[in-house]
């Protein structure tokens, strides 16, 4: 694994079906989100995703029921790394998330599809401000979009809405870019914990609203957002009501 420099310059064609990937690293990001860093078991290069795309994951097991479970996970790393990273929130009673958390460790092998999905950043559209919004674990694909373009263009707006610090995932990166003046970032904590301070740990207490969007985001921008159904509905409806053109609205929910 290469944490930083870009070594993957050869184009690798996406494969059909599943391919074996080894778990190189498993990191607990907080109490219920963990990241898996994956590399092809045969030592080949990864097929480069577009920022925002996801992979499908399947378990190699003799368990007939578990064998059939396939779940999608957005890639959460900068798209041109030589590994894939997925960041997964454990769901109560969830088959795949609990299996991965409890049974899969570094060195284990998973079956993985090539990156896919139409929710992907169009990097050529640079004439408009870029607005990225992530709700909860839905931050993963927009984070990848942010890593892809941060420092390469101006007028990037990033909005991250989450419960509080206990639910954070890569918040430090967003704060760093914001402090360096690379993005215009806003962090909403819907339920801050005691001791978490507005203006320091987060920017705004509560939920994102249409009024806030109208006052704080460039409505002539190109919008990409991901979160749960409630979050994406709120953002989509707000943007449409505020007159944003459909062609500038891109989203995915899970
Ligand atoms: C394009 C895409 C990208 C995604 N990216 C991410 C990502 O980056 N990170 C991430 O964490 N997730 C992501 N997801 C969601 C992910 O694919 C899984 O849906 C999620 O991890 C839950 O999987 P699971 O197998 O653990 O849960 P499941 O077993 O599918 O269960 C889901 C829910 O249903 C309930 N449930 C299950 N069975 C029953 C039953 N019989 N009766 C009643 N309730 C039941 C469970 O308790 C749980 O609440 C993405 C989804 C999509 C479509």
Task: Describe what you observe in this structure.
The protein has 254 residues and is an alpha/beta fold. The strands form 2 sheets. A 6-stranded antiparallel sheet has the order 4-3-6-1-2-5, with helices on one face. The longest helix has 13 residues. It starts with 18 loop residues before the first strand and ends with a strand.
Main traits of this protein?
254 residues, alpha/beta, six-stranded antiparallel β-sheet, six-stranded parallel β-sheet, 6 helices, globular, disordered N terminus, binds flavin-adenine dinucleotide
Radius of gyration equals 18 Å
Share of helical residues:
10-25%
Catalogue the unreliable spans: 2-8
Order of helices and strands: EEEHEEHEEHEHEEHEHE
Structural class: alpha/beta
Q: Mean pLDDT, rounded to whole units?
A: 94
- Main-sheet strand order equals 4-3-6-1-2-5
Number of helices: 6
Distance between the termini: 29 Å
Beta-strand share of residues = 25-35%
Q: What is the tally of beta strands?
A: 12
Sheet having the most strands: 6 strands, antiparallel
Q: What is the overall silhouette?
A: globular
Could you say which small molecules are bound to this protein?
flavin-adenine dinucleotide
